[in-house]
Amino acid sequence: MALSTFSRASEVDPRPSTSAWQRIRYRVQQFGASLWPRVAPQEIDRVALWLPPEGVALFLRMIKRDQRHSLDVQQSLLIAGHDQPDLLAAALLHDAAKTAQPGHRLKLSHRVAVVLMQAIKPGWVEQVARATPDDWRYPFYLHLHHPEMGARLAQEAGCSQLTAGLIRRHQVKLSAPPVDEEDQLLAWLQIADDAN
Ligand SMILES: [Fe+2]
Ligand SMILES: [Fe+2]
Known about the structure:
The structure is a single chain. By secondary structure, the protein is an all-alpha fold. It has a single domain, classed as Orthogonal Bundle (Hypothetical protein af1432). Helix content is about 60%, strand content about 0%. It has eleven helices and no strands. Helix 4 (about 65-80) packs across helix 11 (about 180-195). The relative contact order is 0.15. One fe (ii) ion binds next to loops.
């Protein structure tokens, strides 16, 4: 299948001809959904179709907001017709290391700080990050290193090498056209991740 393009969810207005009031209401609902993300029990049940039992446990340790994001990434892939199991498993766990390690979570405040720091001074986050889990600056390290940490967690949870490889590489954009299966799956994962 050729590379599919996704629209950013935030840019998709389901009813472009609606009134300004309806558009405002839609945006408010969207904002509310991001503040109070919901995951239906049936969605959790379906996670077990793609992950081994330890992988499901890892998924459930993520905060609800990241569970929602991961399910949405997977859903984008499914809608686009991608059914490769390692890819769909990677979609569910690609950001697991951000919040699945109890006591060491990337909170919303850290995410906001990262965005601001990157905008104000490129390289600032890298300067501030510390690898010591007890340090208050550890969440910045977590932000920078969640791909390789997540790959390790996924592998320990029984996921495949290919799933772990996709998670390890998911933040690094391909600099050339895909040359093998992993590259191609990675490109699809990144498109879906960017769209959600
Ligand atoms: Fe990520
Ligand atoms: Fe993501």
